[in-house]
TrEMBL record, chain A:
Keywords: Protein transport, Transport. SUPFAM superfamilies: E set domains. Pfam families: Vps26. This is Vacuolar protein sorting-associated protein 26. Residues 331-342 have a biased composition (Basic and acidic residues). InterPro entries: Arrestin-like_C, Ig_E-set, Vps26-related. It comes from the Eukaryota. Belongs to the VPS26 family. One of its GO terms (biological process) is intracellular protein transport. Residues 324-356 are annotated as: Disordered.
UniProtKB/TrEMBL annotation, chain B:
Residues 802-824 are annotated as: Disordered. It is found in: Membrane. Keywords: Membrane, Protein transport, Transport. This is Vacuolar protein sorting-associated protein 35. It is a peripheral membrane protein. The keyword Methyltransferase does not apply. One of its GO terms (cellular component) is late endosome. Pfam families: Vps35 (PF03635). Belongs to the VPS35 family. It comes from Caenorhabditis japonica. Plays a role in vesicular protein sorting. Gene3D superfamilies: Vacuolar protein sorting-associated protein 35, helical subcomplex Vps35-C.
């Protein structure tokens, strides 16, 4: 009873991770919409540290029914808050029931713990990792949580297939576009070009948008949210037949996460490159193309002797891969490629979100 | 072009708004730069550049906005280069950063700027950066905005384009030849070939944009669009200028890469405005050697241009340029080595063939250049010039054109064409070696032919082209034949025109250029010329024959001093006079003139009188008598007769070699003619004049003294006084009296013993009586004064005579013979 009125002994719990000073911090958007710093972990990395239980009043006993720490990976769907899914839950017993007479530290270790997914905060869903310490007491447990951010690294071979496609509207507009890959890491550069085969409309400008689509749930309970992450004008004015317009879009500057497919059977995050042509009557012609985004391990430090001149460093990352149109036109005539019709008009639901 | 053109006021307003934003943002940008906040500065720069996206401004206004923005971007560039050239590593990610801008126009302007900064700071590969920039600019397909963006690209990179060495191999050679420790050039800095590629790409893209302007917007605004385009052409041309400025650009590169690429672009764009401007650009900006080396290629491209292109201007520009070059180059070897003329000639011919719709004036203008080239660069190759005239003749014949109007479009070009060899050779006689010249000249209408003939004569006069031989004379006369006799195509009233008179005067002047080496030959020439001119018809004779007569007289005087050198001297001189007489006779009979031949006869008489050939007095007599018979028969106007009589008297007073028996009939006839004047006052005046003959005349028999026949003088004066009294008009009579008083006084002063002073005073009192009766008038006043003078003079004369006649008064107004210059 004494505790109820603040007379009883109480304790403050802190989770200190190992090598906190050296560990990389990343910003992540919290539920409040603001950015917070979090420690960064990768899949398979051990999570170790110490739990500090500091007594608030000296020389007074602190009773507890046991202390434990859990490592939790959890998917939380906002419209169904009660139904959280822990896809990982590992518990470590730190202390058996007993009592503390002074501040105590409890080291913990989750060895090579599996973190299969990337942390994610979306519109309708959140995937988070956190440590939770619970000091079990008779009336109210004391708990302390610490969010961790997990980056899921992937790797794809460099000789990724490019996206090439000829699209058009009969007797009105035929274009061939090419993106150099269909999988881009988050600091990658999208390099490509648009080749105009037939132009009978007065185009005002052309832009590329990166659309993010989050799909949560399944069946009738599917929630789909699209948002435009980036909008990038790549052409001003009306081209004529034979013109080839370069595309170079650096991804690093945008707030992007890796593509996610059916994570925990709960949700997916997809990215699309949306090529939009706008004519002088403000009609929009567009073609969406899904691309996969993935997280690449940070660049390894330059080895000594690798590249004698420092200014070579990725200064113009896109350039080397960019081919002059004349060459590429000859290189891949694609008669066999299926002709896809561009969608036209702004009535498309995808486009509505574009204008928002 | 611009989507919402708006009127000028609206444009001004839009421009002002934009410029205000540019100013504000650039101000913030510079503040950030000062504080070292590069990223913030770039953000303001982007804001500023957003204005360049406008579609509201016409080219003229957009240009002003561009200039302002450029200025600010230059500040940015200078500042970045200054701050970071020592530690360029800090800039490394800028090239990427600026590419996040989502609007393409500001993004590319900034990218170009940063690219420039990178190159200047030695960051990255210059070659790669240039290539990247020129490629990325493809994103702007809007003609106006694209042209300015690419122009900015050229401006920004102008000073950093690699201009050495020509090839990678040369770079190796260059590097291996450097002293130890010197900085070697890196291959990635690029070579001039990279620059060429860079500029050529930019050029081609700009041209495409420029051409595209033509095809955008409603067709009713075509004229306006063309005007807009012309204002923008310099932007496109700058690329060519930059290429031409490359020091490492060799002839070989120009021949193999540069020109073919430029021509390909020009030909394939199929836009007349572009083609015409750019071809002219090529001609103007590249070196003469280059042009010489690529003549065939260039001309072949000309043949492929659109029909609307004014090829003439291009060819002419090229020909003129090369003509200037080859004439000014010291060696002069080029024209002979290069078959410059043949190439041009051939190309021009095939061009004309391939373009049947080409206007004739353009065809002629083309030949103007060709002739100019032939004449100026190959002064010795008359066949070239002739060939050109021949070519033109054939074209004109094919088109069946004749009677080209002198001042029409074609005529003006034709005049230019024909004037070239005249001006250049400075010797019209050489034109006779161009048989085709005359044939081309014949295509002119009458006026045109006359003009060019007159031009040739003027040239001969200026250059003093002497006609020495019969061949010379024939050649010259052939060329100016339209002026020498009536032409089939001559308009009826052409004789009345000022031009006709001017031209015939020129012909007359030309005749004085006939100068054979000796007197005999000269006489033959003049005689021959006389015959030719004789066919010119009455309107020309009056201009053309007098010079012949004067030339003959001149020849006589020249020959006069050569008596000792020629046995047949007398006979030849006589022959010359006969010839002159015949010539003058033609003036009377054919030209139906009177006073002019009369003067010429009198002149001849004086000339004959001066030359002491055998029986020269017969010639003098003949000439004076002929003159007098003209006066009798052909001079009807009384005033003219008075004048003619005065001339005759003057001539007779000048002659000294007539025997008395020849002199007297002439004198008598003269006095008779004087007395036969139609009006009484004229009789009086003429008689007073004629009286001088008996006082001052000289004959062979007076031994070099004057005649002093006072009796005859007084007789004539009395007669005239009598006639004067018969005059009824008081004023006229008064005039005559005063004149008579003066005449009497004169002879009295000159000691004529037969003069009776009483007689004079009687006349004076009569005059004074008369004067009282005169109505008051200015004339009467003046006569009163004159009378007073006459009286005073008589008083003085009386004193003089009384004072032993020591002095003699000055001669009165004796009639003078016509002098040589007065003949015309």
């Amino acid at each position: 009873m004494a505790m109820l009125f603040g007379f009883g002994q109480s304790a403050e719990v802190q989770i200190r991770l190992k090598n906190e000073d050296d560990r990389k911090m990343v910003k992540a958007r919290g539920e409040d919409g603001n950015m917070h710093d979090h420690f960064l972990y990768y899949d398979g990395e051990s999570v170790t540290g110490t739990v500090h239980v500091n007594l608030k009043k000296a020389n007074q006993r602190f009773e507890h029914q046991g202390i434990r720490i859990e490592f939790i990976g959890q998917i939380e769907v906002y419209y169904d808050r009660g139904n959280q899914q822990d896809f990982i839950l590992i518990t470590r017993e730190l202390a058996r029931p007993g009592e503390l007479t002074q501040n105590a530290q409890f080291p913990f270790e989750f060895n090579n713990v599996e973190k299969p997914y990337e942390s994610y905060t979306g519109t309708n869903v959140k995937l988070r990792y956190f440590l939770r310490v619970t000091v079990i007491r008779r009336l109210t447990d004391i708990t302390k949580e610490l969010d961790l951010v997990v980056h899921a690294l992937s790797s794809y071979p460099d000789n990724d297939n490019s996206i090439k496609m000829e699209v058009g509207i009969e007797d009105c507009l035929h274009i061939e576009f090419e993106y150099n890959k269909n999988k881009y890491h988050l600091h990658d550069v999208i390099v490509g070009k648009i080749y105009f085969l037939l132009v009978r409309i007065k185009i005002k400008y052309m832009e590329i948008a990166i659309l993010k689509t989050e799909v949560v749930g399944s069946g009738p309970n599917t929630f789909k949210e699209s948002e435009t992450v980036a909008k990038f004008e790549i052409m001003d004015g009306a081209p004529v037949r034979g013109e080839s317009i370069p595309i170079r879009l650096f991804l690093a500057g945008y707030e992007l996460a890796p593509s996610m497919r059916d994570v925990g059977k709960k949700f997916s995050v997809k990215y699309f490159l949306n090529l939009v042509l706008v004519d002088e009557e403000d009609r929009r012609y567009f073609k969406q193309q899904e691309v996969t985004l993935w997280r690449k391990a940070d660049r390894e430090p330059n080895r000594i002797g690798d590249g004698e001149t420092p200014e070579d460093l990725n200064v113009i990352s896109g350039t080397q891969k960019f081919q002059t149109p004349a060459v590429s036109v000859v290189e891949h005539p694609k008669p066999e490629s299926p002709r896809n019709d561009l969608k036209s008009g702004s009535s498309s639901p995808e486009e509505n979100s574009d204008t928002s | 072009m611009y989507e919402h053109p708006g009127n000028t006021t609206e444009q001004e307003k839009n421009l002002d708004n934009s410029i205000r934003i540019v100013k504000a943002e650039s101000f913030e940008m510079k503040r950030c730069l000062d504080k070292g906040k590069t990223m913030d500065a770039l953000k303001h720069a982007l804001q500023m550049l957003n204005e360049m996206r406008t579609a509201e401004l016409s080219p003229k206004f957009y240009y002003r906005l561009y200039m302002d923005s450029m200025h600010e971007l230059q500040c940015l560039e200078v500042s970045l280069v200054q701050d970071f050239s020592s530690e360029p590593a800090k800039l490394v990610n800028l090239y990427e950063c600026v590419q996040y801008a989502s609007s393409i126009i500001p993004r590319l302007y900034l990218l170009v700027t940063i690219g420039g900064v990178f190159i200047k700071c030695g960051l990255g590969s210059r070659k790669e950066i240039l290539k990247d920039l020129v490629e990325m600019c493809r994103g702007v397909q809007h003609p106006l905005r694209g042209l300015f963006l690419r122009n900015y690209l050229m401006q920004c990179t102008r000073s950093v384009l690699p201009d050495f060495p020509e090839t990678e191999e040369m770079l190796d050679v260059h590097n291996s030849n450097l002293p130890k420790g010197a900085t070697k050039l890196k291959p990635r800095d690029g070579t001039v070939e990279d620059t060429i590629e860079f500029v050529l790409i930019n050029f081609a893209e700009m041209n495409k944009l420029w051409v595209r302007m033509q095809h955008q917007g409603p067709s009713k605004e075509r004229e306006k669009r063309e005007k807009d385009r012309l204002e923008l052409r310099i932007l496109v041309g700058t690329n060519l200028v930059r290429l031409a400025q490359l020091e490492a650009l060799t002839e070989d590169m120009y021949v193999k890469d540069v020109l073919p690429s430029i021509l390909e672009q020009i030909v394939s764009c199929r836009d007349p405005i572009s083609q015409e401007y750019l071809m002219e650009c090529v001609i103007q900006v590249f070196a003469d050697d280059f042009h010489l080396a690529t003549l065939n290629e260039f001309l072949a491209a000309c043949a492929q241009l659109q029909t609307e292109v004014n090829i003439k201007i291009l060819l002419i520009a090229l020909v003129d340029r090369l003509a200037l070059y080859t004439t000014s180059s010291i060696e002069g070897g080029a024209p002979t080595k290069m078959k410059l003329f043949e190439i041009f000639s051939e190309q021009a011919t095939s061009l004309i063939k391939s373009r049947p719709e080409m206007p004739v004036d353009d065809i002629v203008a083309l030949h103007v250049s060709l002739v100019s080239l032939a004449v100026k660069c190959y002064p010795d190759r008359l066949d070239y010039a002739n060939l050109t005239f021949q070519g033109l003749r054939q074209v004109i014949e094919e088109k069946a054109i004749t009677e080209i109007e002198a001042f029409g479009k074609v005529g003006r070009e034709l005049t230019k064409l024909l004037n070239i060899p005249v001006d250049e050779y400075k010797n019209v006689l050489r034109l006779s070696e161009l048989p085709e010249f005359i044939k081309v000249m014949r295509f002119f209408d009458y006026r045109g032919q006359c003009n060019i003939s007159a031009y040739m004569i003027q040239n001969m006069l200026e250059e003093e082209t002497i006609l020495r031989t019969q061949e010379n004379v024939d050649a010259a006369f052939e060329l100016i034949s339209p002026l020498l006799k009536d032409q089939e195509n001559q308009p009826e009233n052409s004789h009345d025109t000022e031009e006709f008179i001017d031209e015939q005067n020129l012909v007359a002047r030309l005749l004085h250029l006939i100068r054979a080496d000796n007197v005999d030959a000269q006489f033959l020439l003049l005689n021959g010329v006389r015959k030719v001119l004789g066919e010119g018809g009455r309107y020309r004779l009056r201009f053309t024959l007098p010079p012949i007569v004067f030339e003959l007289y001149r020849l006589v005087l020249q020959f006069a001093e050569m008596k000792e050198e020629d046995e047949k001297w007398d006979a030849k001189i006589r022959k010359m006079f006969v010839c002159a007489m015949g010539t003058i006779g033609a003036l009377v009979s054919s030209a139906e003139l009177a006073e002019l031949p009369l003067k010429l006869y009198l002149n001849g008489a004086i000339t004959a009188d001066r030359v002491p050939f055998e029986d020269n007095h017969t010639v003098v007599y003949e000439f004076v008598s002929k003159a007098m018979s003209i006066m009798e028969d052909d001079v009807s106007d009384s005033r003219d007769r008075v004048r003619c009589l005065q001339l005759t008297v003057g001539t007779l007073l000048k002659t000294t070699h007539l025997p008395h028996e020849n002199w007297e009939p002439l004198a008598i006839q003269t006095v008779l003619a004087a007395g036969k004047m139609f009006k009484k006052p004229d009789q009086v005046r003429s008689l007073v004049t004629a009286a001088a003959l008996y006082w001052h005349g000289q004959t062979l028999n007076t031994d070099g003294q004057k005649m002093r026949n006072g009796k005859k003088v007084v007789e004539i004066l009395k007669r005239s006084a009598k006639i004067a009294k018969e005059c009824l008009e008081p004023i006229v009579q008064q005039q005559l009296f005063i004149m008579l008083i003066s005449a009497y006084t004169y002879y009295y002063e000159d000691k004529c013993p037969e003069i009776n002073v009483d007689h004079i005073e009687e006349l004076i009192s009569l005059t004074q009586d008369n004067s009282v009766q005169l109505d008051v008038s200015a004339e009467a006043d003046s006569l009163e004064k004159q009378l007073g003078e006459a009286i005073r003079r008589l008083q003085l004369a009386k004193l003089d005579v009384a004072a032993a006649q020591q002095t003699s008064p000055p001669e009165p107004d004796l009639p003078q013979p016509p002098n040589e210059n007065e003949g015309l």
